[in-house]
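Final report, Chapter 2: Outcomes

The project's central promise was a pipeline that accepts a single protein chain and returns its three-dimensional structure in a standardized token representation, suitable for archiving and comparison. That pipeline is now operational. To close this chapter, we reproduce one record exactly as it appears in the project archive, with the input sequence first and the structure output second.
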Amino acid sequence: MLSQNCSWRWRAVSHCAVRQEGVRFHSGFSTGEYNSPNLYCHKTCIKKPLDVRHFHYYNGFHQLVKRLFIVKIDEVVEQGRKSLLEILEEIPAIKIKDRSPTSSAYTGADFAITIEVKPTRIIRHLIGEVKINGQPAIARDAVRQLEVQIGKNSSNTYGIFIAPYLSIDAQNICKAAGIGFMDLAGNCYLSFDSVYVSRNSFPNLYPDRRSLNSLFSPKAERIFRVLVEAGPRRWKTQELSDEAQVSIGQTAKVKSRLQEREWIRSGKIGFELTQPKTLLDDWARSYRIGRNKVYRYYTLLTPQESEKELSDKAGPLDTGFAFTSFSAASKYAPMVRYQRLDAYLSSENKITEIANLLGWKEVATGANVFLYVPYDRGVLYATRSESSRSVVSATQTFLDVSQSKARGEEAAQALLNGVILERWK
């Protein structure tokens, strides 16, 4: 097991650190040396105080192991190999010569299959590199590993990357490198000799809900708001941490997740967001306005009349006051039409007082006034004045208006293309 002054390779850990759980430890990260002077097995070694100088080594290992238990790598290897064999058996031009799970000639690959391609009778060796994660950065790493294996062996070797699910970006990375791919959802690409197989658009059958929730957790969202609202610029981790008001550890963690997806680009003087639209699209799909506590009211006034009265009353009573959804989108993009009022008030104890002052009636259905108590203070980041009204940031407006069933998607796209992405040109 792990002990003091240990030096090990990622895969070497597989057969000692996690064997008791019946899971072969196989990282989605680069294979390489990992040296740490203070790592101990929790079950078999005497626990000693953790040396804070090496905390990041320990914490990185701990977080990595937690991720890997979502899908067992051995199951992915075996299922991927069997699925590939099923595809090959359906191709008349292919005859399978060796289907054994392992091959001594390809010790660096997760599996190898030898085939004969008709009518030329060319012998091809298909080698598989399996990862537990199919994010673009990990796909790129798998491609590099396969290229090394291909270089070590004959020119008749063809590499195939396999993961539970591969995004379109990850698929394109493989294609550009001349590497095949396959995932457990059914997406597949093989292109060699006279063989061509292409199947895509299959949805993810193995969504990592914990990973998704962690990526768009409230504190992570604070970081995303800062990145998007700032437009194109470089950040240092400490600087971004201070601006988003989250710990530097949380910022480093989010940065790592963005690197996996290749949504940021790192350099000598910091890193920058390069895929704001992709980030916002994924964020909108994950976002739920229901995390805010909502109060529903009805008024006979028009939304515009109610907004003026609310601004006059709420402004002096609640400094955390700002319009959102259609009420804010209409200020950023005046062509947006709407029939309701949406606003955030951070002081929940003031909401009833304000509603009574304005003569609003609290209702369960048929409301045309929605007042929200923010689920996190980051919601009100970059609140500003537009058309003499206090509104949340364009990023927050985009998220909230996208939740509306009544032309919300149309308004969200108008805001995204006409306001937010304009900063990134």
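Archive annotation: Confidence is low (pLDDT under 50) at residues 1-70.
This record, like all others produced under the grant, will remain available to the consortium after the project formally closes.
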